[in-house]
């Protein structure tokens, strides 16, 4: 059995577990990691509030768990199987993303704006209390597209590249960026390392995600939006993902939104009709089909290599 075939089998097993079981309900390891990271931050901040302190905190928060994953894989000749599959399953959020997005699309479709606002507020950081139906649909569609990279394709990429320890590194870095990567007085300097390291780890996955969206939708329009709109976006990775995704869906996203009580202007994304409940479901379908495309590509490549080596 070739190395790629081994990876392909684990890849498929992790995706299957995510599809069957979804997100861990009672105690998600990322919640425990978040508490660990808060403790690390509290202790390191006593040293000051400089960028090097933030880098030290990042290393102390992430490194022990990645080293533990590497060690666990070597405890037994077959230990890499359960360790890699379990870590991929825990890192993936495909089913959870679908469930949360559908919980926004369903009330929005039946005209229950209050419930749609409440539900979308669970999955976005912007203020949702005053959003109209179009604003709710815009927020929901954008977060599905962006999290398609963070919770699915980025994790799959790092698993293919470095197995269980790689996907763990990516997911923990992504979590720390969500905790510390804010441009506010508290985290402007301390969170700099978390934000930059997440950007670095996401550089290739984000562009592969954007390409995946483009291939599965309005390809030419998606590539055009990616090329013209992504450079204006504040995030170097979210820009390509959301611009290509919006272009692939043929929907107009972006525009001003309220974050932490302040209206922030944002460039336009995509091209086409205004978003609605069908846009959210379109984004869900784009992610689902993207997963199948990645699985087919990995499995086909593994099959060809096995055939050539036979």
UniProtKB/TrEMBL annotation:
One of its GO terms (molecular function) is threonine-phosphate decarboxylase activity. The keyword Oxidoreductase does not apply. It is found in: Cell membrane. Pathway: Cofactor biosynthesis; adenosylcobalamin biosynthesis. Coiled coil: none annotated. The keyword Lipoprotein does not apply. Keywords: Cell membrane, Cobalamin biosynthesis, Membrane, Transmembrane, Transmembrane helix. GO terms for biological process: cobalamin biosynthetic process. GO terms for cellular component: plasma membrane. It is a multi-pass membrane protein. The chain crosses the membrane at residues 55-72, 151-173, 291-308. Converts cobyric acid to cobinamide by the addition of aminopropanol on the F carboxylic group. Belongs to the CobD/CbiB family. This is Cobalamin biosynthesis protein CobD. It comes from Parazoarcus communis SWub3 = DSM 12120. The lineage of its organism: Bacteria, Pseudomonadati, Pseudomonadota, Betaproteobacteria, Rhodocyclales.
């Amino acid at each position: 059995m070739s190395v790629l075939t081994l990876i392909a089998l684990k890849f498929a097993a992790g995706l299957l577990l995510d599809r069957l079981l979804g997100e861990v309900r009672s105690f998600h390891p990322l919640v425990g990691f978040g508490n660990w990271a808060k403790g690390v931050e509290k202790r390191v901040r006593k040293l000051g509030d400089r960028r090097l302190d933030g880098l030290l905190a990042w290393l102390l928060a992430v490194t022990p768990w990645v080293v533990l994953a590497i060690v666990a894989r070597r405890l037994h000749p077959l230990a890499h199987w359960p360790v890699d599959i379990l870590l991929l399953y825990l890192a993936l959020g495909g089913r959870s993303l679908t469930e949360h997005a559908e919980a926004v699309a369903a009330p929005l479709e039946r005209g229950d704006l209050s419930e749609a606002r409440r539900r979308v507020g669970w999955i976005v950081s912007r203020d949702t209390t005053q959003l109209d139906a179009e604003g709710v649909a815009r927020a929901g569609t954008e977060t599905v597209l962006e999290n398609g990279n963070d919770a699915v394709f980025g994790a799959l990429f790092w698993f293919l590249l470095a197995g269980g320890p790689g996907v763990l590194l990516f997911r923990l870095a992504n979590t720390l960026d969500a905790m510390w990567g804010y441009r506010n007085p508290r985290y402007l300097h301390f969170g700099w390392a978390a934000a930059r390291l997440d950007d670095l780890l996401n550089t290739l996955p984000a562009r592969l995600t954007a390409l995946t969206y483009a291939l599965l939708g309005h390809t030419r329009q998606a590539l055009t939006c990616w090329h013209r709109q992504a450079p204006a976006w504040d995030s170097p990775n979210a820009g390509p993902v959301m611009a290509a995704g919006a272009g692939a869906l043929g929907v107009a996203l972006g525009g001003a939104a309220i974050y932490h009580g302040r209206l922030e202007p944002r460039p336009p994304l995509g091209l086409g009709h205004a978003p609605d409940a069908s846009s959210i479901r379109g984004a869900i379908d784009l992610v689902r089909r993207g997963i199948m495309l990645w699985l087919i590509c990995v499995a086909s490549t593994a099959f060809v290599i096995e055939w050539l080596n036979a």
